[in-house]
Every structure is written in C-alpha cells, then in structure tokens.
Amino acid sequence: MTREALPPLHLVLALVVIAIWGTNFVVIKWGLEDFPPLTFAALRFTFAVLPAIFFLKRPAVPWWNLALYGVLIGVGQFGMLYIAMTNMISPGLASLVVQVQAFFTVGFAMLLAGERVRTFQVVALAMAACGLGWLMIHTNGEVTPLGLGLVLIAALSWAGGNTTARAAGPVNMLSYVVWASVFSAPPLFALALMFEGWPAISGAVQHADAGAWAALLWQSVGNTIFGYTAWAWLLARHPAATIAPLSLLVPVFGMGASAILLGEALTSWKLTAAVLVLGGLAINTLWPRLMARRSAPAA
Fold this sequence. Notes:
The protein is an all-alpha fold. It is 75% helix and 0% strand. It has 14 helices and no strands. It is globular.
C-alpha cells in the first residue's frame, strides 16, 4: 500500500459520500415536485440549522465570514440550482455542469493570491468550455440557455463559498456549515415570499407528501450534515490530493442515478459533453499530482 492509498473502510466512506452527493440531484428533483424551489431551499437550510445549532459551538470565525458563506451557498448555489432544476435542466446535466466550480475556485485563488495561469489549466478550461458549448448547441427540453446560466451562477457561488471557507482557516466544518446556514434561510424565505408568494409556500408545506418531506430531510441531514462531516473527517486524515479527485465521480453517480431512477436518456451528445467537461476537470485536478510524482526522487 502506498502512503497515499486510502484504507478500504475510508475509501468506502468516501464513495458513500460521493454517491450521496451525486444521487442527491435526483432527490432534489423529487422534492421540487411538491415544493417551489426557493421554499425548498429555505426549508433545507432551516433543517440544517435546527436542532443542530443547539449542540454545536459557534466556530471562532468572524460573523461576516459565516454570513458571506451562508448567502453564497444558500442563495447563490442552491437557490439558483433549485430554480434551474424546475424544468430548465435535467438532474444528470446539473450534476455535471455545477462541477465547473473547480475552475472558478482556482480562478478566485489566482485572483486573490496573484498566481499565474499555468498551461495545463488553460487546456483544462478549454476542454470544459467546449463541453459547455456542446450543451448550448444541443439545448432542448433537458437543458435551456437560462437553466445552463443559472447552474453556472450556482457553480460560481459554490466557488465563492469555497474561497470564503478557506479564509476561515481550520475549523470544525460541521459547526461552520450549521452556523453559516443561519444566514442562508432568511434571505431564501424573503425571496420565496417575493417571487413565489405566501399561498404557494403555505400550500406546499400543508400538502407536501411524505416523499417530499423525506427528500427535504435528506437534503439537510444526509447531504449536508453527514456528507460535509464525513468529507471533512477524510480531509483531516488524508492529503487533499488523495481525496479531492474522488469528487470527479459525482457527475457519474448523478447522471447514472438520473438515467436509472428518472429515465433520463444518456444520448451521444450528452456523453460527449460529459467527457469534455470531466476531462477538463480531471486534467485540472490530477495534472499537478502527476507532475509531482514524476519529479519526485526514486525511493
């Protein structure tokens, strides 16, 4: 076993988290059948806060940091993603497109740290951009220009959240996410009242079936509480270069689950776009690691 190899149980845990995050796009689609998107997002973060906040100490980070992360992830990422997934983009494609957050995250790091763009990053971005362009050419009932744009905004917001969390330094990620969610729910409820209206909100809460509530709780407990905690636990015990590449499997689970559970067709144009986007993400994630191995002295 190499020093970077994951123990079997740790690998299983990582794959469980990836599977949860990937298949969660199908769960989102199920929840949106009963809940308006902004209401669904607001309730998700409400249940992420309650009752967990009463058992977790607030992390030692500035309030502005928690507020910025909460708004970016709550309103920017999931608010926009949920709106897009109301018949503007399929769950499988949403799971793919939102992963371009990796490029936005790198871009923010370069902007803030003044780093220069490297050749492999240009190649990776060009591949992913070709994949997104291929999706634009084939816009149909499964993806619209507006849906694609909203998911890209979600990816940009996710990258902003990553940058904000990194600025917070080493903290208990579960506590950080829970306390930041305090700032996610209120603006989402305000936007829901503004754009969806109280009758739609109250009607959804009163008439949502057990499946919709299960989807909502899965968003809060399974995806957020368990997923983030387990991922942070793994990152605390293994190099980021070992754990981070596994996230490339999220769209694989997302598109696979959407095909199996929702009957989403895996057409040739869709698979071509997936190869281009995932290829770009793979180069961006794995190339530095490969070069480091090649330049490392032989044992």
